[in-house]
Design brief:
The complex is a heterodimer of chains A (about 300) and B (about 220). Chain A is mainly beta and about 300 residues long. Chain A has helices at about 35-45, 190-195, 265-270, and strands at about 5-10, 10-15, 55-60, 65, 70-75, 80-85, 85-90, 95, 100-105, 110-115, 150, 175-180, 200-205, 210-215, 230, 235, 245, 255, 260-265, 280-285. Chain A starts with a strand and ends in a 16-residue tail after the last strand. Chain B is about 20% helix and about 30% strand. In chain B, the strands form four sheets. A four-stranded antiparallel sheet of chain B has the order 1-2-4-3, covered by helices on one side. In chain B, a hairpin with a 2-residue loop joins β9 and β10. The longest helix of chain B has 13 residues, at about 25-35. Chain B is elongated and about 55 Å long. The chains are: A mainly beta (about 300), B alpha+beta (about 220). Chains A and B meet through β12, β15 and β19 of A and β1, β2, β3, β4 and α2 of B.
Chain lengths: ~300, ~220
Amino acid sequence: MTGLEVLAPGPLATVQDLGRPGHAGIGVGVSGAADRGSLWLANRLVGNDEDAAGVEVTFGGFAARARSPVTIAVTGAPCPVTVAGRGAAPDSVLRVPAGADLRLGAPSRGLRSYVAVRGGLTVPAVLGSRSADLLSGLGPQLLREGDVLPVGPAPARFPVVDGAPGRPIAGDEVTLRVVPGPRDDWFTARALETLLSEPYAVTSECDRVGARLDGPELSRAGVGELPSEGMVSGALQVPPSGKPTLFLADHPVTGGYPVIAVVVAADVDDAAQLRPGARVQFAPARASARPGATSSGRSS
Amino acid sequence: METITLRVLPCGDTALLVESSGLDDVLALHAALDVDRPDGVVDLVPAARTLLLRFDPDRTDAAAVERAVRETRPSEVTRSGGELVEIPVVYDGPDLADVAHHTGLSERDVITEHTGYEWTVAFGGFAPGFGYLAGGSPRLEVPRRAESRTRVPTGSVALAGTFSGVYPRSSPGGWQLIGRTDLVTWDVDRDPPALLRPGVRVRFVEATTSADSDGPASTGGAA
């Protein structure tokens, strides 16, 4: 019988793929791996399609037993890995014999590690994705001890390398590039300067929905209520407290607090590796053409 | 000749937030862009005054998406051309009396107003399958409840602001509950899973008793 039996999920483990884009109009968020690049690398190492589902392990502690021989890779936050009790390298192709255990310790840096299994995890898909969306409850449940994760047939492609260096996972001092807006004009000029110059700390309220940050308050220029509007991963939404929340994979589809700036797509994976206590410095992204704000007349 | 004023705002480097003066413009723009989606646009998120366009930076860029938006002729079919869904409602919600009090109407008049207009799904976002229904009776504008409920039952029919809605699943909620329906508005095993998608027209019909008083069962009513 093929499959991976969960012996221990650690603090939090979920099945994730690249999510379910395209359903925002009916209130379904994208979800998917919080650090997409790390899941992508793990799948590539074992020869999977890039949208195969794997396990997103939050702060290590994950253990599983192979019910049949499986080929795996562990990427993302670097953590001690053992296969059948022997140390194994992250970011490499690992063979786990039938009956042997895979164990992940706590990461030295970062928060989320990824386990890809050759053939992919074939739990039932919901709206085209096997991702657990922890905000809406769509997709598979949180992994628990005793769960058996089915593994699909091996793809035709074979692993082409034994290992590939992952993106370096930053420690507890991280710089993230942001594009100001869309609602920077709801804040004082000083607020954006503050955001771009002062460090912010990641609080313990930090999950797949987002990370609440602590640091200097970002003051609004006026009062008023913003009608809810579409949100994206990387958005820095500022509630009345003035302390921003950095949205991650399971962020709400719409939100009613103004977004002062948005982390560029290339840095969202790094944002997903921030753990409580980490310090973030926001830097302006290289200037690009800012869309105009002019009126467009048209007949209809 | 009609002019729509649009502000196009950056939303990171892979999305644009298009702001218009109101809901009707958003509906018209969304309807047009949904039918004729600009290359590389992967998600459209309509809301009360804005439309968010997420794009794939490998296939397009912000300037091209902005150009496509500005060249789009807003669709005029939103108010009449969308699919029509009839929702049978038993009007026995716990907030019906409060809604009557807020609006100065009798409970009977609240029901008459709620069933007497054709609503349109303007946008989603609160939960999978929840549609914000707009264009209903202007006399039914009510505030949200002062205290949210921790659990609103599946199928609850509700009002808040100028919107109406149907809770697709049991969830916390702060809207005023005026009734309930057996119509299943959200089912992930159905295609499409959401009955109330942006652009769909809705008419509420008073039902004297629910088809199955133990819970949602009927899927009838969709036109």
